[in-house]
User: Fold these one by one.
Assistant:
Number 1:
Amino acid sequence: MDSPLASAEPASLAWEPMKPRLIALLCLLNITLLGVGYFWAGIYFESRLAHERESAGQQLDQWKTEAVAARAAATARPSPSSLLSKTNPFNWSQLESTDYRQYIANLRAIGCPETTLRDIIITDVMRLYAARRGKFYQNGRPFKYWETDEKRKLKQTQIEERDAQLALIDKELPAILRELLGINYERELNKYFVDAEEDDRRLAFLSDDKRAQVLALREQSEGRREKVLWQAQDGKPTPEQAAQLRQIDQEQETALAGALTAEEKYEWDLTSSPTADRMRKELIGFNPSEAEFREIFAREQALDAAYAGQDPDDETVRAAKAADERKMQDEIEAALGPARAAQYEQCRNPDYQNLTVLAERFDLPAEVSQAVLDMRQSAEEARRQILDNPAIAEDRRDAALQAIQAETERAARETLGDKAYAEYARSASWIRGLGRN
């Protein structure tokens, strides 16, 4: 009987030759299956990727279609503003409010961009404070072209009130702009620190339209003049530049004559010409009437026109102009008569003009100007007599001069008052010179 070991041996021996072939077959089968798997996996993932790509394309097309449809619908629908105009007419007053916080809220509620909102609020606040500032730069007196400049200067009490109010505004405005908008806009304040109504008062004789027209002409001409003068060396134009300036002035005169009637043009000259502005300074203390101002202006304007554009440094020009000025002054004094001619001559004294401005500013009687000038004449005469007297010892001379200065100071202070005298003493070097040997 065969043992199990004997029967097993042939089977083991049979398996051994088959083993390499089986392994090779299995490897081949695995490779085949793996290749098929990769093949079908590639097909699957490529199909999936193509599907997703197609879906994404479809989604983009859908979004584009929806966007186009939305824009078309928005275009077809009436805009909110057109609806408001039909059902509830819109007015800016619906947004404005005396409370700036509410005003800002209203602007934001209608979708106003922040930059535009900021511009609106800053401009509005600045205009409000500019109006407040402007009130403190003029004394309330209506403009009369024949009155000299001291009439419209602020009184001392008005200056003190102005300074107090401007100090308050300087504190309020930056704080308000910061509180409302969270910004610091102090560097922009200077453009609002003007009397915005000066031109309106000066040109009140013109309609609003004509006033705007002539002011635009003035701005245009001034801009052209500035461009020429910027090119001038040391502020002195060349002959060619001087010719350009004359041309600009002539074109402005022609444009003004075309925009205004003859009467309006003459009124413009009386209120706004350089000749009239200069006269209002030169005639301080003369207190001209309207008729006197016109009489003098006619001659001054003719003289200015005759020498317009000529070189003021040319000796021949200066000599000719000086001769014509003397002739003009003689004619003016003859037309004024002796009494007014004397006052006309007096107003050419710079100290007299200074005292006149001071008297107007501090509400002093007009006579104080002449009183102080008489005081000066007496004091300087007394000083001259002491200095010319050799019999007076030096120590006594010094004491006498000091006494004259002290008495003059006392009398001038009593005449002008403490505040006006303190202001006058800053420029009155003649008083300080009385006590010097």
Number 2:
Amino acid sequence: MSVGSGRSLILRLLKVQAVLAAMLLSLLQPMQVMAASAALPGSHSFVADAVRDVAPAVVRIDTERVVERQPFDPNLIDPLLRDLLGEPGFGYGPERQRGQGSGVVIDRQGLVLTNAHVVEQVEDVNVTLANGDQRDGEVIGRDPVTDLALVRLRGTSLPPSAQLGDSEALEVGDWAIALGTPYGLERTVTLGIVSSLHRNISSLGFSDKRLDLIQTDAAINPGNSGGPLVNAEGRVIGINTLVRSGPGAGLGFAIPINLARRVAEQLQASGEVVHPYLGVQLIALTARIAREHNEDPNALVELPERAGALVQSVLPNRPAQRAGLRRGDLVIQAGDVPIADPQDLLQQVDDAEINKPLALSIIRGEQDLQLSVKPEPLPGMS
């Protein structure tokens, strides 16, 4: 090959490279522009998008209830306080107590879901909408057992409703966004994750409640109660209910929206929720606990070394007593479902029908027994 032809070939290769480089640059420029626009200060996060969807449905609930003021013993009033309290007998009687919480509109008819403790002992409430308008609200039902209540807004031009999600689809680590009015500070948003699922409320010291909770590290403070817990798509996955104070502070809890939806339907239909009830106090038993108990020379009875719901006491004239349950019985099955702890049994009782037989398999001493119990409505709730 001559020197001239070699130079010509090199020049042609350089031209091809230049054309390819120009084509590549033309492809990259739009991508660079898109990346630059995504990083501009005016862009928003997924949290802002989720809040924009649900915030119009979040409301503040103000309540006022009358409570009896406890009189002071005049002999115990410090003279320095007498000027503040007045003479003995002055100022006693009913006192108006104000409270505040949050809620979320769940349908186009103006139904607001909130906590039962937010609207405790009141029939009417004042509701402040997201746009600042104030409305009267009527409490149409409360369920203290699940700490849920339903309020109906009065008037026309009702606010938009929030979209409800599926709390059963949650996984630990999912985003959790809490909205509400903590300490009276409206339109407050906090961000965290789902820290745990199916947290038994009895482990938090509430023996009069029946529900599993969503645990989150999103800040939930007084006034947030009744507000929504939202996922990254802006759908309500829970109703904020409480925050742990003292040791372990910073843990927030919410009622799963699937449970809240079922309770709201019953409250709308009849104004109450009927909970099946057996009339027993239960404790968890495991093989290890039973073994340690049986090794105690002072143990009064020998326990079966297996898991189940151990009957600690039986209330008189209740379904459990009428069915023949006794202290020390170990419930290992309800219907066709194995029972590993008291929560399993309570779940089966909750799912049972009032006054319909529920089969129980129990161990009493060295005997395997079959009993049939008919749950009744929880006293004071029907």
Number 3:
Amino acid sequence: MKAVVYRGERDVRVEDVEDPTIDAPTDAIIRITTSAICGSDLHMYEGRTGAEPGIVFGHENMGIVEEVGDGVSDLKTGDRVVLPFNVACGFCRNCENNKTGFCLNVNEGFAGGAYGYVSMGPWRGGQAEYLKVPFADFNALRLPEGEEHEHDFAMLADIFPTGYHATELAGVGPGDTVAVYGAGPVGQMAAYSARLRGASEIYVVDKVEERLRLAEEHSGAIPVNFAEVDAPAFILDATDGGTDTGIDAVGYQAQKPDGEDEVPAMVLNNLVTSTRATGRLGVVGLYVPSDPGAPTEEAANGRLLFDIGTFFEKGLKMGTGQADVKAYNRQLRDLIIAGRAEPSFVVSKRVPLEDAPDAYARFDRREDGYTKVVLDPAA
């Protein structure tokens, strides 16, 4: 089959790889209808992780069940499904506590697994024609038949639940004020989720005007261009002392406004400044224990200059970590079906699988029209 294969820094290629097979009774094979390129993929694409050449990318996957193992009882051939990026067993201690992002059985020596991602286990990604799904009854979420809401449902694999998870970590409730740093796909979904949860004011911080316009149009957010204003100062002035909650949707590759220098803890520290005393922070931007391209030796080992003094003095609370997608995807699916949520507004481009190398390059450059790219293996 055809698949998107990582070959080195800023080098992905569409190559022939072996077809997936049923290796365990609980496996299923999915024919991919949509697989999205995620901002997290760019960390590997840019050489900012320990990803080895040969890995097949793709953790935002949906499609049609083609084959099931003898132990699969809830799925059948022809079912339309979306797959959480988390690979999980369903029966370990963490899975039983609905912490499927930290499964103890799918990635030896590590809590958590994912499709097509460095250090997240042996699971091949779905930017391909087919994908093997382990523990398929547990990991696949069934969808209505047909092609309706294809792009909406594709967002259930990662960014919609991850954005919602950010608001859960921050405890966003009705009437709260929220500052979302980062207006990429996850930041868009965090702002959108804050609106769904009843936030009264949402500030979105970025410097890409297209992204700021998107957040303003679909989430009712107040755009803050940090290349033009001091974002924490702007938010402090506008809120009379800071927002109730803050969300980091950027992570360790945060850059100064000029785009020349990285300051890995910049967003975390800006959140500490712009959130009111006793406020709450949700951090879903990626931070890693090892960064080959870090600006300092300390940052290369995941140790950042975080303003813990002010954080403590203000009595702030912070939740972190990747999203436990299964904690949210069923409810978010039903909001889509009911017409209450349309996360596909973030999708800017659908291209054939063979165009993935070009799409990666353009997304990496933050070109207009490449906010969120989905791949179509059948095109």
Number 4:
Amino acid sequence: MFAPSSAARRCTRRELNTLDEVRRAAVARTLFAPTTLQRALDRLGFVQADPIRAPARAQDLTLRHRVDGYRAGDLERRYAELDVHEDVFINYGFVTAAVQRLMHPRGRATRWPTGRARHARALLAFVRDRGEVHPRDADRHFAHGTVTNYWGGSSSATTHLLDIMHYRGLVRVRRREAGIRIYSACEHPPRTNDATTRRAHLDGLVDVLVRNYAPLPAASLSMLVRRLRYAVPQWYGELTRTLERAKRRLAHGRVDGVEWYWLPDADSAAELERVRLLAPFDPIVWDRRRFEILWGWAYRFEAYTPVAKRKLGYYALPLLWRDRVIGWGNLSLTGNTLKSAFGYVAGRPPRDRAFRRELDEELERMREFLSLLT
């Protein structure tokens, strides 16, 4: 167990009676003491992914606070040796094998595009024969043409089919090559599908959500459980009952007119006397509803917002000081120089000298994370 320094603040109460306690728990329960990469992945169970680098990918920005000595790109570089898999949970990201077993096999819940079942069988045989396959090589072999992708553009039909096969669990991402997924065949063991097993798997998936994102307002808990339709589309019809069970079995309490839910044994302690620049999808800030309740202002991810309409910046990183998100930072790289600009909800930074010192140290940690100090 992590033993906090004298400057650390502990959050160990099982009952949450005030908004300050909820706020403290929201930070402390997910910012566990930095550990090894595998142990951090095991504890989180899921890390959301995003391809934008500003100045690094979201998964790296999330892990840097929770993994000792983490450097940008470590997850991709070490992917093949870790117990981790690219997959869809409530969003696309990285899950451990334990979480993946709760979701698969997804069965026949997802339909093939018209006429593609035969293509899928041939493509799977091709992947098995080759051992691992780059989408470019598969496209060259099959020449299935193009399709309209999820964003309205044009994509290789073969690559699109590999994506569907990945979601269905027929192939897995074995590694990446210059950011491109390299696939190998995958087969999830069969599983009994009785009611007891389904309930256990669904409750286990809810626990992953709550461990990452709690304390959760009731509306957010409901939203997250509904998002499990992406993880287990085969059990979509059981999510209402799953939510009802969650509300009965989770610890909960009413604070300032809001019903909150959390795991009763999720006590933790975090070093809070520091500044942290958080990823837009970090568990601390992911739930925008909870964010506004806890910190009293609206954070928005604006990478896809037209420039003229942006208020915070292209890839604004929420700025956490102690247990308060007090503003945001925009970081960019010019050569090996890290540039930073900050905005504050109060219109100015805290006057506390400790804040200035800790902000400088966080920027130094960011340079180290980005390997700018070598």
